[in-house]
Design goal:
The chain has 100 residues and is mostly helical. It has four helices and two strands, in the order H-E-H-H-E-H.
Length: 100
């Protein structure tokens, strides 16, 4: 595993339930500012059974960036943690939950 991925996984592991971050904030916190797109690619390769809270990462507008079944899965996981998510995938009061 490369250093970038390891740093992302470490930061991701520490995002508590009830909090969110963005791809860009996660990249910056891991020491790689301006690598938001790479965060998405790395998270997409996580195994389905991962315990890392990948679903707590959304885009800078506070919306789910995924589509199809992945969109529905992330939306359900966020709702199960108490987030109010619109049908379009926008998290209500997004900034209130930001961390990192």
């Amino acid at each position: 595993m490369d250093k970038f991925a390891q740093a992302l996984y470490t930061m991701l592991f520490h995002i508590p339930a009830g909090k969110l971050t963005t791809y860009g904030r996660l990249a910056s916190a891991a020491g790689y500012p301006n690598h938001a797109r790479h965060v998405g690619k790395i998270l997409a390769r996580l195994p389905t059974e991962t315990k890392l809270p990948w679903f707590r990462v959304v885009n800078a507008q506070g919306s789910i960036s995924l589509s199809g079944d992945s969109f529905q899965r992330q939306k359900l996981l966020l709702e199960n943690e108490g987030f109010n998510v619109t049908e379009q995938g926008k998290i209500q009061d997004f900034r209130k939950y930001l961390i990192i």
